[in-house]
Amino acid sequence: MQFMASKQPENSLLGPESDSQRTLYPYVTGTSVVALKYKDGILMAADMGGSYGSTLRYKSVERMKPIGKHSLLGASGEISDFQEILHYLDELILYDNMWDDGNSLGPKEVHNYLTRVMYNRRNKFNPLWNSLVLGGVKNGQKYLGTVSMIGVNFEDNHVATGFGNHLARPILRQEWHENLSFEDGVRLLEKCMRVLLYRDRSAINKLQIAKITEEGSTISQPYSLKTYWEFSAFANPAQGAVGS
Amino acid sequence: MTKQQANWSPYDNNGGSCVAIAGADYCVIAADTRMSTGYNILTREYSKICKLADKCVMASSGFQADVKALQKQLAARHLIYQHQHNKQMSCPAMAQLLSNTLYYKRFFPYYSFNVLGGLDNEGKGCVFTYDAVGSYEKVGYSSQGSGSTLIMPFLDNQLKSPSPLLLPVQDAVTPLVEAEAVDLVKTVFASASERDIYTGDKLEIVVINADGIRREYMELRKD
């Protein structure tokens, strides 16, 4: 890997000096994160897989973490960059606490900070290879936003990263509504995660669901979804074309 | 077969269209609220319009992260101007600032296609139109963004823009009344939404006149 890093790829963004410190491609990656607003706050789901290319290398990666008192951060993409972001946020929250002024950073502020960090790294051509989901509640106001590796950011009632945009968002657009109950929200998220499990090659059947409300955040113990494989077509897949 | 290499582009096009029309004593600025990437819709309710000063509003489409950064830059510079001059920036002054800000990043541009609209110091409507690196022009009306190729010819036809080759130079500020201009904008976006996949969801219209700033919304096609 050392020697490969110094070889210039064809579509290179590097100048004459080969800067081997810049991120060229991700190594250990997490797949989709899906999140939605519900009656009391935000629900977020992500599986626990860390893929190394096509190898499922790590199966207990926590891709969602609480940030401060009011926020929850979920990440897909390069896991080491996610850990770096957590480190930046640790420092951000620390300095916020050290003011000791009774105020604390809300989800909107954390999202804005993350957007600036991602955008600035993109400007230096050394991106943090993540798509982030930031959700939280402060003073009764629910907030759910997302930011991509090049700094594209927005907030909405439901968001997803990666494959979640293709498979989960359409389900959410159809079935999400204002003031979902906790049970309905979890059911809806599980529906999305099940589709992702069936159709996303990098998804694994071990997920966590995180909840954040005015009271605080909880991240569930890992569990798995029930799947159904008894379709008759699966029983004899080559029936229509034996030998293929 | 060579190993698949990941690669990334620092730019993306998040789509959308913007329009601005200047009148004798008003200015209409409008943009759709759809934000896309590739063939996906990211969100249906994202505002591309930003109020820069009391009588100066900017609508921008293109790469959303650059647009956001540009809006923040201009807002910060405006605050400094207010501290130093104890007054709001006029629309023509903001127009020059925007041009300079864009050109500053001539060699790593803001991928942002802007129209600036507002009232000049006499209270007359003015519209400025830009490219991504800051070349700009004061015009009577303009459109930018993914639907601009569909919208601009229609505006040329309806607003009967005088030829820029005529002498003496004729002002392209429209004689239309405010309500008619707003109606034209609605028509124009409804048409653009039919054929431009990146334009749709909702239309946000901002009207600036002597009374202040007014905001209006209209539903557009969601497909």
TrEMBL record, chain A:
Q: Does the keyword Cytoplasm apply?
A: yes
GO cellular component annotations of the record: cytoplasm; nucleus; proteasome core complex, beta-subunit complex
Q: Where in the cell is it found?
A: Cytoplasm; Nucleus
Q: What keywords sit in the KW lines?
A: Cytoplasm, Nucleus, Proteasome
Q: Return one Gene Ontology term, BP aspect.
A: proteolysis involved in protein catabolic process
Per the UniProt record, one Pfam family is Proteasome
Chief site of localization: cytoplasm
Looking at the record's lineage, which domain of life comes first?
Answer: Eukaryota
Identify the InterPro entries for this entry. Answer: Ntn_hydrolases_N, Proteasome_alpha, Proteasome_beta4, Proteasome_bsu_CS, Proteasome_sua/b, Proteasome_suB-type
Record's family? Belongs to the peptidase T1B family.
Q: Which PANTHER family match?
A: PROTEASOME SUBUNIT ALPHA/BETA (PTHR11599)
Q: What does this protein do?
A: Non-catalytic component of the proteasome.
The subunit field of the Swiss-Prot or TrEMBL record says:
Component of the 20S core complex of the 26S proteasome. The 26S proteasome is composed of a core protease (CP), known as the 20S proteasome, capped at one or both ends by the 19S regulatory particle (RP/PA700). The 20S proteasome core is composed of 28 subunits that are arranged in four stacked rings, resulting in a barrel-shaped structure. The two end rings are each formed by seven alpha subunits, and the two central rings are each formed by seven beta subunits. The catalytic chamber with the active sites is on the inside of the barrel.
The name under which this protein is listed is Proteasome subunit beta
UniProtKB/TrEMBL annotation, chain B:
Is the keyword Nucleotidyltransferase assigned to this protein?
no
According to UniProt, the name of this protein is: Proteasome subunit beta
What family, per the record?
Answer: Belongs to the peptidase T1B family.
Sorted alphabetically, which InterPro entries does this protein's record hold?
Ntn_hydrolases_N, Proteasome_bsu_CS, Proteasome_sua/b, Proteasome_suB-type
Q: Which SUPFAM superfamilies match?
A: N-terminal nucleophile aminohydrolases (Ntn hydrolases) (SSF56235)
Q: Which GO terms describe its biological process?
A: proteolysis involved in protein catabolic process
Which PROSITE patterns has this protein been placed in? PROTEASOME_BETA_1 (PS00854), PROTEASOME_BETA_2 (PS51476)
Q: Which GO terms describe its cellular component?
A: cytoplasm; nucleus; proteasome core complex
Coarsely, its chief localization is cytoplasm
Coiled-coil intervals: none
Keywords, sorted A to Z? Cytoplasm, Nucleus, Proteasome
Read off the Pfam families from this record: Proteasome
SUBUNIT field: Component of the 20S core complex of the 26S proteasome. The 26S proteasome is composed of a core protease (CP), known as the 20S proteasome, capped at one or both ends by the 19S regulatory particle (RP/PA700). The 20S proteasome core is composed of 28 subunits that are arranged in four stacked rings, resulting in a barrel-shaped structure. The two end rings are each formed by seven alpha subunits, and the two central rings are each formed by seven beta subunits. The catalytic chamber with the active sites is on the inside of the barrel.
